[in-house]
Amino acid sequence: SASQMWLLSRLLPLIVGNNVPSHDAHWRCYIQLLRILTISTATEVTDNTVSTLSLLVRDYLTTFNTLYPNSITPKLHYLLHLPLQMQLYVYRYMYPV
Cα separation of 97 and 93, whole Å? Predict the structure, then answer.
């Protein structure tokens, strides 16, 4: 299930992280994805969080496309829209009209 994959993705660095070279490009790409996951599932969001997420998504997709050419799926493309959706949420609930 989605919750099981989320938990596995969070625990994997603790389980095998010491056995993976820190300079490994594929591992670094995975860590970038974890940072995006952490921000996108946060309970509180600010303007700075949205800006950080936007940069992380751009860097992650660039790295992913370099490591795995022609493998961008629609689900990965939707990551590009996540910062804007979060920003709209911040403005709607933080600054109500």
Answer: 9
Q: Which residues, 6+ apart, have CB-to-CB distance to 90 below 8 Å?
A: 45, 46, 47, 50
Q: What burial class does residue 77 get, using C-beta atoms within 10 Å of its C-beta: 0-12 exposed, 13-18 middle, 19+ buried?
A: exposed
The position carrying tokens 């993705």 is 9
Write the burial class of residue 8 (CB in 10 Å: 0-12 exposed, 13-18 middle, 19+ buried): exposed
Q: Which two tokens stand for residue 63?
A: 């790295």
Cα 48 to chain centroid, rounded? 15
**Model confidence band, residue 33 (pLDDT cutoffs 50, 70, 90):** very high
pTM of the model: 0.82
Which residue is it, tokens 């403005």? 91
> How many other CB atoms are found less than 10 A from the CB of residue 60?
21
